[in-house]
Amino acid sequence: MRSQYLQNPPLTFRTRTATLYTGFALLLAVSTLLSLVLMGGISLLLAYAWGPLFLAYGIYYLLGQPSLRVGEEDILIRNPGCWHRITYAALIDVSTKYHLTLVTPQRRYQVFALPASGMLASLNASRQDLHNLPAISYKPGGGLATSDLPNSAAGASALVIRGYWQELVEAGALEDKEGQVQSYWDIPGLLILLALLLAALAGFYWGSGFEGV
Question: By residue range, what is the domain housing residue 99?
């Protein structure tokens, strides 16, 4: 279905600082590895590289990787440690209070990657940002919450989801469809985090013994 809101799907949303955190994590890892090689060669690198790598990956995993993917059939929330796939037929509300939150009859699914911008979004808003939004965006009486303004990441993603959801409802595309929600652990990401932690502890222990010789 051709959509006014969901164009060239899937669309991926992240906080605007995600790239900054990812770059910082990469810089931390590379600079630390180079310093260890220059200071003590391969032996020092093998002993002490894992701690900084664990820290760098942890920063990326918690602050750089989380995202929201909006597709034609469903929405994928990639939170640290756990992912949620939600179909449009399962939605009953889309909230931007505190974080972008997808609401189903059973529970609320908060998107870690998209906190509400609040006052900052309202200060940067233009008149165009207040008009031509999906009807569900407005409060009774026509008001609009600052967290719903489309000039923020949370507001922009809410605009796309609400608009496309409204189009599906009006077209009758969700009739007789059963809402589906799937939640599952991010096993690969958690295993990498655990492996780096264990390697950091083992490297510290081995390095301490090496220094005592």
Answer: 11-212
DSSP of 6-60, one letter per residue? S-SS-EEE--TTHHHHHHHHHHHHHHHHHHHHHHHHHHHHHHHSHHHHHHHHHHI
Long-range (24+ apart) CB contacts under 8 A made by 189-195 are 189/61, 189/65, 189/80, 189/81, 190/81, 192/57, 192/61, 193/54, 193/57, 193/58, 193/61
Which residue bears the tokens 């009807």?
Answer: 135
The total number of structural domains that make up the chain: 1
Q: What is the pLDDT of residue 213?
A: 44
Longest dimension (CA), the chain: 76
Residue 130: other Cβ atoms inside 10 A: 16
Q: Is 67 helix (H, G, I), strand (E, B) or coil?
A: strand
Structure tokens that stand for 203 in this block? 């490297």
Task: Look at residue 177 in the predicted model and tell me its pLDDT.
Answer: 92
Determine, yes or no, domain membership for 6. Answer: no
Answer whether 33's CB lies under 8 Å from 49's CB.
Answer: yes
Residue 123 has a pLDDT of: 43
Amino acid at 158: A
Residue numbers of the chain with a pLDDT score lower than 70: 118-148, 151, 206-213
pLDDT digit string (tens) for 30-88? 998 888 888 877 877 777 888 889 999 999 999 999 999 999 999 999 999 999 999 99
For residue 47, being part of any structural domain is answered with yes
Q: Which two tokens stand for residue 16?
A: 């605007």
Q: What angle do CA 134, 2, 140 make, to 5 degrees?
A: 10
